[in-house]
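Lecture notes, unit on binding sites. The following record was shown on slide 14. It pairs a sequence with protoporphyrin IX containing FE.
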Amino acid sequence: MAIVGRTLFDADVEGEAQDIGEALTTVLEMFNLIGRPLALIARQLKLPTASLRRFEVAKGQLDATIYQIIADHRAGKNTRPDLIATLLAARDEDGDNGMSDQQIRDEALTLFLAGHETTANALAWTWHLLSQSPRVEAQLHQELEQVLAGGRLPTVDDLPQLVYTRQILTESMRLFPPAWVIGRRALHDYELDGYLIPKGSVVVMSQWILHRDGRWFDEPLSFRPERWNEGLKQRLPKFAYFPFGGGPRNCIGEAFAWMEGVLLLATLAQHWRFQAVPGFPVEPLPLVTLRPKHGLRLTPQRR
Ligand code: HEM
């Protein structure tokens, strides 16, 4: 969250991270209500149910943070050409109308959420998998010692050499895709393989299911980063592996996420190992993103 705050908004949100994190969790929990029409009607009617009240409070908190960041930019307190500055400077094609605060809020909140929740989950699952696989962990350490001789910090220039580190992240997002499902609404009736998809219906595609399909991946449930060695990506059908979605709405932050994820993994694994606490339950919680249901309990150990 701190990285997204700094890089996209030139804002320091670290102090508020705990509160913002809790508010985001409450808002994400609303996702479960999307499939329940009665809950949506309750919101439209502004019925004071407990979950809706919690949602409104959390939404108010997130709005307050983002609107403050926008106000600071409008007041000239931030001078870096960051994302908010770019949105404030944007004009539409047929006039010189700028964006309203609400429009900027919508864009900014999407990027704020999409920009850290997914990467954080990808890394959390990666530490979990590494804690279960000493062989992979040892090979990671070997690569880091070779590429970052003398224990220096990794930089963007090291990315092409951090091949195994990247394969670990690739394999981790196969088994635990942070975006575990995406949906598209059919604009018109469409026939697919003998099935009619009626206009207006939502088609759901699940990374979780496809990434664990034995047709594309040998021993699909085992964590084997080196499976990506042998040109697997090129051999796979286009949507057998799609942690970042696809088509015109493919993740806009994909390149950012690879860079950030590989650098964070390398930086932390250089100095730390994370050992699983025996008996702590690890279970996925599928909301908008795939989170560890009970969090993760890992013991850091200096290397
Ligand atoms: C491991 C990290 C990430 C994963 C797995 C991920 C995954 C995805 C997926 C699957 C979509 C498409 C959703 C759909 O098709 O309905 C998406 C969209 C999006 N992502 Fe990411 N993402 C990640 C990181 C990021 C980062 C770092 C940013 C911003 C810096 C970002 C910003 C966005 C935005 C703004 C969209 C919406 C794009 C649109 O609708 O046109 N994501 N992401």
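Take-home: The beta strands are 182-185, 190-192, 195-197, 202-205, 272-276, 284-286, 290-292, 298-302.
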